[in-house]
Design a protein that fits this description.
Helix content: 10-25%
Order of helices and strands: HEEHEHEEEEEEHEEE
CATH superfamily: Umud Fragment, subunit A
CATH class: Mainly Beta
Strand content: 25-35%
Number of strands: 12
Low-confidence stretches: none
Strand order of the largest sheet: 1-2-11-3-4-9-10
Number of helices: 4
Distance between the termini: 51 Å
Structural class: mainly beta
Shape: globular
Radius of gyration: 15 Å
Oligomer: single chain
Largest sheet: 7 strands, antiparallel
Length: 166
């Protein structure tokens, strides 16, 4: 009962099934997803979040049951755009030292709806994410990926956060 309570309220382990978050997360990495901080604070840009599929995703693939993991890039009310290999937030380019390669697609500009987030995989050109299926409602977010605990050679925090280019 105690373990069930901890998993429901505090934290849970998750594994990475795909390459969408390369190079930050590799296939078969194991993570601790903490659930406490979002009870008191909203997700922030750069957070790596685990979330349940959106309604649009479930309509496109009714058998989809697994949670997704992506990085929060756009916050409610912000205008996001992907142009020329860069992500722009309210017209300011982000410096993203963690991505596999610059995105080869164009997207936006669009305003992130209230209580929703734009999430993208770090492997921008090989990630099924918000630029395909839209925004993640706040209520779908399970928690924040806090630390990698497997494999042993990669134990630790999950890397740099985005910042604005100068």
């Amino acid at each position: 009962i105690l373990a069930f309570g901890i998993r429901q309220i505090v934290a849970e382990a998750r594994y990475i099934p795909s390459e969408s978050m390369l190079p930050t997360l590799e296939v078969n990495d194991r993570l601790i997803v903490e659930k406490i901080s979002y009870r008191f604070n909203d997700p922030q840009r750069g957070d790596i979040v685990v979330f349940w599929p959106t309604e649009r995703l479930k309509q496109e693939n009714p058998s989809l049951k697994d949670a997704f993991i992506k990085r929060v890039i756009g916050l409610p009310g912000e205008t996001l755009e992907v142009q020329g290999g860069r992500v722009y937030v309210n017209g300011q380019p982000l410096r993203e030292n963690y991505i596999a390669a610059e995105p080869e697609y164009q997207w936006g500009p669009e305003v992130v709806p209230e209580d929703s987030y734009l999430v993208l995989g770090d492997n921008r050109n090989n990630s099924y994410d918000s630029h395909f299926w839209g925004y993640v409602p706040r209520e779908n977010i399970i928690g924040r990926a806090a630390v990698r605990f497997w494999p042993p050679g990669r134990v630790g925090e999950l890397g740099p956060e985005p910042e604005y280019r100068e």
